[in-house]
Amino acid sequence: MCRMLAAVNGIPGERLIVPFARMAQGWNALHELNPTLGKFDHPDGWGAVYVAAGRWKRVRSPVPFWADPTVAALRDKMVFLIHARRASVGAVTAANVHPFVATRSDETFYFCHNGTIHDPAIAAYHGDTDSARYFHYLLDRFDAHDPEGSLARAVSALTDYSAVNAFLLTPGQLCVINRYNRYPRYYTMYRSGSVFSSEPLTEIESNWTPLDTDTVVCIER
């Protein structure tokens, strides 16, 4: 389980840190797992993808986002993906923190997931977590000529999960998957323009709308 945010054009870290910390701590919104503010948090590490000096960079830490002093280094960066983990499968280690990264055909892909997947279709893939295995499952089925269709077909083949919500940052696109079987208030993702988030963050954008479950959308960067 996690909280996560993606922005097609990036968000300045100085605008993002405070509202994302509040979301990671459970102080932003109420839902089935967080009936009172601050009851349900995501303390098992955080990670981000950002651009520095014109190049993609990734940072991951097993420390809670709100307690990690290294978060301050994001202030002058443009952040494209950010994720706070609540571990459901796999140890609390930096290696199990999202975003994950993989290279296919000399192209780099980054990935974040929210949910827990027990479906046997991902069991053959390598990874200490269901999220890492799900990432490679999707990459094997991803078609750059039909990104939305290929991802929709891949997730439709899965049945045993709480949610398969994901961000896939490809060389030319941000792809967003919103599909869940449980806790609709917790798992529904929201969109405001080209920004997507697990919860509306009014400091970032003002006009948030919920995504329907079974949504797959890819936006060119």
Short description:
The chain contains 4 helices and 12 strands, in the order βαβββββααββαββββ. The chain is of the alpha+beta class. The protein has one domain (2-220): Aminohydrolase, N-terminal nucleophile (Ntn) domain (Glutamine Phosphoribosylpyrophosphate, subunit 1, domain 1).
What would you say this structure looks like, in words?
By secondary structure, the chain is an alpha+beta fold. It has one domain (2-220): Glutamine Phosphoribosylpyrophosphate, subunit 1, domain 1. It is built from four helices and twelve strands, in the order βαβββββααββαββββ. It has helices at 13-25, 130-141, 147-156, 184-187; strands at residues 2-12, 46-52, 55-61, 78-85, 100-104, 107-114, 165-169, 173-178, 190-192, 195-197, 209-210, 215-220. The strands form two sheets. A seven-stranded antiparallel β-sheet has the order 3-2-4-1-10-9-11, with helices on one face. Strands 5-6-7-8-12 form a five-stranded antiparallel β-sheet, covered by helices on one side. A hairpin with a 3-residue loop joins strand 7 (165-169) and strand 8. The longest helix has 13 residues, at 13-25. It is globular, with a radius of gyration of 16 Å.
Jot down its keywords.
12 strands; alpha+beta; 5-stranded antiparallel sheet; 7-stranded antiparallel sheet; 221 residues; 4 helices
Can you lay out the helices and strands and say which pair or pack?
Blueprint: E1 2-12, H1 13-25, E2 46-52, E3 55-61, E4 78-85, E5 100-104, E6 107-114, H2 130-141, H3 147-156, E7 165-169, E8 173-178, H4 184-187, E9 190-192, E10 195-197, E11 209-210, E12 215-220
Antiparallel strand pairs: 1-4, 1-10, 2-3, 2-4, 5-6, 6-7, 7-8, 8-12, 9-10, 9-11
